[in-house]
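Long-time lurker. I teach an intro course on protein structure, and each term I like to show students one example going from raw sequence to a predicted 3D structure in token notation. This year I'd like something fresh instead of my usual example. Would anyone be willing to generate the tokens for the chain below so I can use it in lecture? Attribution to the forum is fine with me.
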Amino acid sequence: MSTEHTGFCPVYRAIGVLQEKWVLHIVRALLNGEKGFNELARAVGGCNSATLTQRLEHLETPTLITKRTEDSHGKLARSVYSLTPARSEEHTSELQS
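-- Reply from a regular --
Happy to contribute to a lecture. Here you go:
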């Protein structure tokens, strides 16, 4: 069986994104709704901040998750992460099946 891919393959791309360590933990943690960075770090557990930041940035690129920033009025801004609407709908339909 050949492992060489010629052209775009969405399954191959998805495997490439999801196989990274911590990615499925992040997605699972966001299935129940949006979370701030620290809350997400606690939910994932065991992932250092630098790695979590890197994985979140990597998940924003193919629009699996979205990031928004909340102004905290004089404090540091709070980053809040959530699954994109399409990803949340997929999860809801799976639960209803």
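Some talking points for your students: Confidence is low (pLDDT under 50) at residues 91-97. Residues 49-60 form the longest helix (12 residues).
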